[in-house]
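We treat protein structure as text, and this decision shapes the records that our systems exchange. Because each token names a local backbone shape, the row as a whole describes the fold. An entry from our holdings is shown next, in its original layout:
>
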Amino acid sequence: MLNLKEDKLRDLPGWEKNAPVPICMGGDYRALTFCCKPGYSLTFGFKCRRDQALAELGLSQEEFVEIKETFSQENQWDSDIVCFGSMSYCCMRRGGCERRDLALKRRYPKLTLPEIMEIYFKKKKELAKRILTECAKKPSIKKKINALLSLF
């Protein structure tokens, strides 16, 4: 049974109900979709739980990067103006990220910002599902992950 805390969930356009807050703010494993690329020092690295979450899921950093970069290529999310060269590593910041939002506007030039953000969060939800689906292949974590996958 899932025990998701309401203060760790958000309603987002494109994701709809129960989107997780970022991992560093206490979000569940689905929030890995908003995490940075491993191997780089982070300004707020002291509260980053990405590597801990990956270890708990039995997903290596290399597997995580492969999932995100494949997703980025499939969705034409590679961009030289965002961190780590891909929007698949971008976060959910409510106030927006200047570089993320600019990259999204370049990717979807005929859409309004609200329409773009709906697509962004819908795709981030798809990426979260892909990450967890990969983890569900591991017998030791399958039951826990299947409970989260039922939220999609």
Q: What stands out?
A: The longest helix spans residues 113-135. The beta strands are 9-12, 16-20.
